[in-house]
């Protein structure tokens, strides 16, 4: 459960570096621990090799590159199978709001290459004020057709389908990296990958301090809220970040499966606390897509959440601190 800090926080060792197109942060009590850093780096390298859409040699890219005129199967690593299972779970749990079958739509909007190669739109640039007309389309729950088998692990996609695991793979990596770093060091750790934050092991005095804001790159002085958690994870999803320009249009990376277009709803940023970073990330992303239905859906899940409207006003629910 998230709470408002009530006591000074313990001094923590903090390291940060670039990874997975964002900033990786490792925090723990005590001096720097080489084993913990190495454990995090191994997990990040592993998820990149398994689930990156921008590496030709990743398992995801090799599966997507197979001729799509018929069902096709890839012998998979256990990690890739876990990542695909999580993506299917995200779609089921969110009633299709978090859909892993939107790779063609993302590519069609220009997100067909690594983030550093896109023409970025600054997060400080204002969002459009006028409501857009969004044309919704009929869409089958195609993720239900994905087959994941074990012994050996293999993934089978139906004809015509391509996957994008960007909505869930980074959060999975944060959970796995936090657990691996805790096991390597024997101390409680926090791992952050952009807006996806996971913890493992005993928390420091006062809990893990997290500053929730639109863009994690803006630092602790940015408008937002500082909370603390004892266990679990926190995820923040936003339409303010990960924005690029295609022609005259500004795009962002959270798509509405009903339209195949960037989400255009009442919320610009949603933060959620949950038992795992993956669960928090699924919920925060789904809330952006669900729009006006987000608050009752989050209440059904029993998850603490902070939702920031397009005008910057914030509402909290489910035990999230005021």
Textual characterization of the structure:
This protein is an alpha+beta fold and 322 residues long. It has a single domain, classed as T-fold (Roll), CATH 3.10.520.10. It is 27% helix and 25% strand. It contains 7 helices and 17 strands. An 8-stranded antiparallel β-sheet has the order 1-2-6-7-10-15-16-17. A 3-stranded antiparallel β-sheet has the order 3-5-4, covered by helices on one side. Strands 8-9 form a two-stranded antiparallel ribbon. Helix 1 packs antiparallel against helix 5 and helix 5 packs antiparallel against helix 6.
Which helices and strands, and how do they pair?
Layout: E1 13-19, E2 22-28, H1 34-51, H2 59-65, E3 72-75, H3 78-93, H4 103-108, E4 147-149, E5 154-157, H5 169-185, E6 189-193, E7 196-200, E8 208-213, E9 224-229, E10 233-238, E11 243-246, E12 249-252, E13 255-256, E14 261-262, E15 267-274, H6 277-290, H7 294-301, E16 305-309, E17 314-317
Antiparallel strand pairs: 1-2, 2-6, 3-5, 4-5, 6-7, 7-10, 8-9, 10-15, 11-12, 13-14, 15-16, 16-17
Helix pairs in contact: 1-5, 5-6, 6-7
């Amino acid at each position: 459960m998230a709470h408002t800090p009530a006591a000074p926080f313990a001094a923590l060792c903090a390291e940060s570096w670039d990874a997975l197109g964002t900033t990786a942060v490792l925090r723990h009590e005590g001096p720097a621990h080489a084993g913990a850093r190495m454990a995090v780096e191994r997990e990040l390298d592993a998820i990149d090799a398994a689930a990156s859409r921008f590496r030709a040699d990743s398992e995801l890219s090799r599966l997507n590159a197979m001729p799509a005129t018929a069902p096709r199967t890839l012998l998979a690593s256990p990690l890739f199978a876990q990542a695909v299972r999580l993506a299917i779970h995200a779609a089921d749990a969110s009633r299709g709001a978090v859909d892993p079958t939107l790779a063609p739509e993302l590519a069609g909007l220009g997100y067909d290459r690594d983030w550093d190669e896109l023409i970025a739109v600054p997060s400080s640039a204002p969002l459009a004020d006028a409501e857009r007309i969004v044309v919704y389309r009929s869409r089958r729950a195609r993720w239900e057709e994905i087959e994941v088998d074990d012994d050996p692990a293999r993934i089978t996609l139906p004809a015509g389908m391509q996957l994008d695991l960007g909505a869930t793979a980074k959060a999975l990596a944060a959970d796995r990296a936090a657990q691996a770093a805790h096991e390597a060091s024997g101390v409680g750790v926090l791992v952050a990958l952009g807006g996806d934050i996971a913890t493992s092991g005993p928390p420091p005095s006062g809990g893990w301090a997290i500053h929730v804001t639109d863009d994690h790159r803006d630092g602790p002085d940015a408008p937002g809220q500082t909370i603390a958690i004892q266990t679990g994870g926190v995820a923040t999803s936003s339409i303010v970040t990960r924005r690029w320009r295609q022609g005259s249009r500004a795009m962002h990376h959270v798509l509405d499966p009903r339209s195949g277009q960037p989400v255009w709803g009442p919320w610009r940023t949603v933060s959620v606390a949950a038992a795992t970073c993956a669960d928090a990330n699924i919920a925060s992303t789904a809330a952006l897509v669900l729009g006006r239905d987000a608050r009752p859906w989050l209440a059904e899940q029993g998850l603490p959440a902070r939702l920031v409207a397009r005008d910057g006003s914030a509402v909290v629910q489910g035990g999230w601190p005021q």
